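WARN  no MSA supplied for this record, continuing single-sequence
INFO  ligand: iron/sulfur cluster
INFO  echoing inputs
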Amino acid sequence: MTVNTGNNRASAPSDIVVEADISAVVSEDLRSIVQRHLNQVPNSVELSAAEQETIRQQIKQLLREKNAVIVAHYYTDPLIQALAEETGGIVSDSLEMARFGNNHPADTLVVAGVKFMGETAKILTPDKQVIMPTLEATCSLDIGCPADDFSAFCDQHPDRTVVVYANTSAEVKARADWVVTSSIAVDVVEHLDACGEKILWAPDKYLGSYVQKQTGADMVLWDGSCIVHEEFKAQGIEQIKQVYQDAAVLVHPESPQSVIELADVVGSTSQLIAAAKQLPQRQMVVATDQGIFYKMQQAVPDKELIIAPTGGNGATCRSCANCPWMGMNGLNNLLSCLENETNRVEVDPAIAARALKSLQRMMSFKAGG
Ligand code: 13P
Ligand code: SF4
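INFO  complex generated
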């Protein structure tokens, strides 16, 4: 987590080099994929309170019978988050999800999140069964970084250490030297920079540019973005700050640079929740997916949480601070995958073996160590 003091740790070059040209991949194609997935979001099917309770009890029983545990992300439906907590599972950021699944003795991990989280769990614990409520839930960063194009990009920069964000496919991780999540990206790149290494970063250009500014490292960046965080705009934050003048601004580093510059705290989802607790302000403007409010409000019951405005509205708003893929996880499909042991995550063993090396570096990294 970074508290914005206005002083970066190192002086950064004025221009960030964003080299990869994937405009063809991330234009109309991506929009139509998002729309298709938005149309399938199962939670639009309203369940009555009684139906919810019946499903919850069925899931609880199956978790016990099958020695299974729920590993959920903060952006999933609060009903899933509550169930994970009540049954000894976890609700967390992507790094803690990976660690929890890796260390837990369950035979089956039910990963409620997006594809890369299920793949990471399977690569780290191949002997466990990893299932997901849906295998369709992906991520714009993963979609926007096809393995073949990425590999060609790496070939153009053989002198660089390849650092990829966890929000990537197993194939992309297999081509990388390091995997990082937003909670340790700055620390890992700072460490590599101190060792004299030049970095090739993918896929999130905003997170990459933030890391570059924080560390001063020599980085070339892939041109990807998160469709949810990209919609936060500096102008919207400035306007809402006029209304809530004493509010702290909490920003996930997948947001554009102009939004990050207005932040009091920049960090992963878990780090933003920790900051909400530690900061003295009574009001928080939060620039990340709205799913985080369930756990954040639990952490700070007396504080007022305000969602940062997104750039779009109506027809132009593709996410409105709600990840369409995280939203595909619901009670119904969670029950179904557990009952039938369907939606198993499988990763090609040769790819998994290579991805494991870069993931293990992430798992064993200790800041300052
Ligand atoms: P965190 O690791 O901060 O939870 O981020 C994962 C993610 O996909 C955010 O959009
Ligand atoms: Fe990917 Fe953005 Fe959704 Fe996170 S919020 S899973 S980065 S699309």
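Residues 5-16, 21-27 have pLDDT under 50 and may be disordered.
INFO  checksum written, moving to next record
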